[in-house]
Amino acid sequence: EMCFKGWRKFGSSYYYFPNERKNWTESRQYCREMGADLVIINSREEQVRGVNIYAWIGLSDAQTEGNWKWVDGSPLTTVYWRKGEPNDAHKDEDCAVYLNEVVSLNTWNDIPCSYEAGWICEL
Ligand code: 2F8
Ligand code: CA
Description:
binds calcium ion; five-stranded mixed beta sheet; Mannose-Binding Protein A, Chain A; globular; four-stranded antiparallel beta sheet; alpha+beta; 2 helices; 9 strands
């Protein structure tokens, strides 16, 4: 079975949690250079994997404000925004991060795409 060093297998996908911080575009580029992309969360099983720092997911509304799309263009089937999110704070929050939430499955927040965060690749 194919297995990349440092990647973790859950279900039918492999995930990578780099120990660095980059903005959303650079994070996505990092994943793509390995033939992967930022994670697309489309099941409850995928959503429960915890990370304890902000980590970019493959979700953005940079193209059209309020129209959140996954990096592969697929529609949101499962939605796990934190309470009150997405709020486009300061009208400048077009990229989504995941932050583990102990008491709730709802872990997503929108923040500025230029912010330096961790990220999750999926292959
Ligand atoms: O209260 C929610 C709010 O908290 C922060 O802003 C103060 C977040 N910003 C960053 O983490 C950069 C907002 O995105 C979030 O909506
Ligand atoms: Ca927000």
